[in-house]
């Protein structure tokens, strides 16, 4: 049956700056009936398909049964390398890390005609994810505020924004640490960043997320990583309600562990490879491990947004 407008696909966009716990939050949301967490879809073309990195199920993406079925449903085949490069090139337009650009870029502006094919391709992809998974809502943890504008231009997507924030001092400390990335080609470590730089990005990124969601009139909920760990059930219920599916209790074990099934997340923090009983523990190593001058710098640069999000001075 042919219809002029495609059916609506519901998308819960997990926004927030890197190392704020979005991958863990997505893995938790994936446990909720009706939701499917599929990682940072923005990186599907490059890291997922061109580089054939591993899906969180452990299989290289081109061999992952879930993604192969999604791509066949969306496009009838896996796009060839030239097509993948074009898709990646288009998504890079929505990947700005330029700080003024993050704050000034208008939300939901008119689609450029030459990118219409890209927005159609996104629409087909999210629709296929929903169909193959059987979920009511697709959870995308791409996080970039700029990529959110790409989703707003894709026809037939009903987008809601769940914005995760974390204490900027914990985030800055995480960006300082040497961390292995089991998924990186050539055994590279995860990227690192100076606390001053992290603090600037944390502020600009979070402000841009709020601004884009507000200007586009999107349903929006901000939640704190610390609350997700301390009160997982209540926090997940609130996010689930935003997504539009009935909130159900999430099973937390006696020792505070969460039972996570295997997911099919593209890219994201290495925590996505964990399944089974995952301990929910607040990583507060920064409170003892972070150099005082870095703490003070981060606290100063992120004030007053930090205070508005409920993170005190000490
Ligand atoms: Zn997979």
UniProtKB/TrEMBL annotation:
Organism equals Dactylosporangium cerinum
Which domain of life does the UniProt lineage start with? Bacteria
Signal sequence coordinates: none
Q: Output the InterPro entries linked to this UniProt entry.
A: Gal/GlcNAc/GalNAc_ST, P-loop_NTPase
Q: What is this protein called?
A: Sulfotransferase
């Amino acid at each position: 049956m042919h219809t002029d407008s495609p059916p609506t696909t519901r998308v819960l966009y997990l926004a927030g700056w890197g190392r704020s716990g979005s991958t863990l939050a997505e893995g938790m949301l994936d446990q909720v009936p009706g939701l499917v967490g599929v990682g940072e879809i923005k990186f599907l073309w490059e890291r997922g398909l061109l580089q054939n990195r591993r899906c969180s199920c452990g299989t290289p993406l081109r061999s992952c049964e879930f993604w192969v079925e999604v791509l066949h449903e969306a496009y009838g085949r896996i796009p060839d390398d030239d097509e993948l490069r074009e898709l990646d090139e288009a998504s890079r337009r929505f990947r700005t890390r330029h700080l003024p650009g993050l704050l000034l870029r208008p939300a939901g502006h008119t689609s450029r005609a030459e990118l219409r094919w890209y927005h159609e391709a996104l629409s087909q992809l999210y629709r296929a994810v929903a169909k193959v998974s059987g979920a009511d809502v697709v959870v995308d943890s791409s996080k970039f505020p700029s990529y959110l504008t790409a989703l707003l231009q894709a026809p037939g997507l009903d987008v809601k924004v769940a914005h995760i924030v974390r204490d900027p001092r914990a985030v800055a400390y995480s960006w300082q640490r040497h961390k292995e990335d089991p998924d990186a080609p050539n055994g590279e470590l995860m990227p690192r960043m100076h606390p001053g730089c992290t603090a600037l990005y944390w502020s600009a990124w979070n402000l841009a997320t709020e601004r884009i969601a507000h200007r586009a009139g999107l349903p929006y909920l901000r939640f704190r990583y610390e609350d997700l760990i301390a009160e997982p059930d209540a926090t997940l219920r609130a996010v689930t309600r935003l997504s539009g599916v009935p909130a159900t209790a999430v099973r937390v074990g006696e020792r505070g562990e969460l039972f996570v099934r295997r997911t099919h997340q593209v890219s994201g923090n290495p925590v996505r490879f964990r399944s089974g009983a995952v301990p929910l523990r607040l990583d507060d190593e920064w409170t003892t491990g972070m150099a005082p001058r870095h703490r003070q710098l981060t606290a100063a640069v992120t004030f007053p947004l930090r205070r508005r999000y409920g993170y005190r001075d000490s």
